[in-house]
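Record pair follows.
FIRST:
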Amino acid sequence: MTITRTFAGLAAATALATTALLAAPAVAGAATVSQAAATQWGPYDSAGHRARAAGSLTVSGEDHAVLPVAATARVTGKVHDRTRDASCGWVVFRITYRTEDGNLPFKQRGIRNCTYGTPKSFTFTDKNVYEIETKVCSEAKAAKPSLNCVYGGTWKVVYLSK
């Protein structure tokens, strides 16, 4: 009998908590819009730990009732070159955004640091962001990251509109 009462009490508490959680969005309104919320990303290392990147992400204007995207996403961070030779550290971002016609194309941004021991800071902002992914590479100095850097390995999700 004690076990039955315990289970009945747990079931009642669970039902009460679930009801409170489900009622919260209804009180606030049907469309939930998030305010600027900063989250940390990284640190992510390249193969062999020859480069590292980390930073923060601030997302604002996320409204899933209208479009499942963030109105503005601001990424800040630092990329470190951890080699003493001629190679450079790269952090590459793939930003998927929503166009007016509803398509989800992406663009890439790469930040390079070729100075051992001195991190390079960066900041960029994009609009109508659906997803941001990143990858860290270490390779020879070049104007842009190599195809091996961009297409090899795994992208890490920094932000995904849900």
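SECOND:
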Amino acid sequence: MQIQVPFALPNLPDEYGINQPADELIDGINLRSFPFTVTDLPKAAVTVAFSLIDHDTIPVVGFSWIHWLGANLPVTAGQVVVPDNASQTATFTQGTNTLPMIIDQIHQPTAFKQRGYDLTKHYAGPRPRGGVHAYRLTITAVDTTLPVTSGYLYNEFLRMVEGHVVAQTHVNLLYAKK
């Protein structure tokens, strides 16, 4: 399996994190997810799941920060394509990020609430407090459609894929607040 992105690795472009004008962010959160393609998937792969996790937050907040979870992306012709800003227009199932830890400190715009958009169940772009953080994008090819619903938790996902993983790969994307 190969992960392809339309930018030079390992650096995640500014447009997918906090380095944006304030009016393009929701309380410092960038909701625009980055595109990626997974190729050379095994024939046994029916769907793909992914996670984007910042483990560099462990010394800062005491745990890894989940930025994005996705599952049940169908494999077509041995690949999966996730377009730019897919998190806001997704047809795949998205899990819960770590925003519930700070949700009392942020607000959701009325327009989002009216269309049922929950910030905790979508992409939440990088916003490291300091230094360069590595954001691990892990792709998991599975031999089934997982029984997940919107807002599933990462620990639930880990239990559900048990015995169904046919391949897994990852790439680290680097990002720093300017």
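COMMENT: The first strand starts at residue 2 and ends at 4.
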